[in-house]
């Protein structure tokens, strides 16, 4: 575990190295949250449009949500958020323009979570 979701705006679709960023996120979770490598799951969702702020400047948006089991310290969660924001620019590509980026680390009820490898 963790379950990581990365929402990103359509404008980044052609330049965002999603696979590279996903692998980096998984490595950060292993390093900073003591997660098991095989338990790290990162998915990407492309969003057609996002509105940031109230002015006319157009930003791309990357919103990272990290869902984890309870028990990590506030410091570990904050360190993960900072590390994700520091790593992100290296995967956006030079044509990204201004990008708003957010990271949210949340705990969820581990008693209600199930995971399995299906098929073969």
From TrEMBL:
A GO term, aspect molecular function: 5-carboxymethyl-2-hydroxymuconate delta-isomerase activity
SUPFAM superfamilies: Tautomerase/MIF (SSF55331)
InterPro entries: 5-COMe_2-OHmuconate_Isoase, Tautomerase/MIF_sf
Gene3D superfamilies: Macrophage Migration Inhibitory Factor
A Pfam short name: CHMI
PANTHER family tied to this protein: 4-HYDROXYPHENYLACETATE CATABOLISM PROTEIN
Protein name: Isomerase
Organism name: Kitasatospora setae (strain ATCC 33774 / DSM 43861 / JCM 3304 / KCC A-0304 / NBRC 14216 / KM-6054)
Lineage per the UniProt record: Bacteria, Bacillati, Actinomycetota, Actinomycetes, Kitasatosporales
């Amino acid at each position: 575990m963790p379950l990581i979701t990365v929402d990103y705006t359509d404008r980044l679709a052609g330049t965002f190295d999603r696979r590279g960023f996903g692998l980096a996120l998984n490595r950060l979770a292993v390093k900073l949250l003591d997660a098991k490598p095989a338990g790290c799951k990162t998915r990407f969702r492309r969003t057609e449009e996002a509105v940031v702020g109230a002015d006319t400047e157009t930003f791309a948006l990357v919103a990272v949500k990290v869902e984890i089991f309870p028990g990590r310290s506030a410091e570990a969660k904050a360190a993960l958020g900072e590390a994700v924001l520091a790593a992100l620019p290296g995967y956006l590509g030079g044509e990204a323009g201004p990008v708003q980026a957010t990271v949210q680390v949340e705990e969820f009820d581990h008693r209600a979570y199930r995971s399995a490898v299906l098929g073969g």
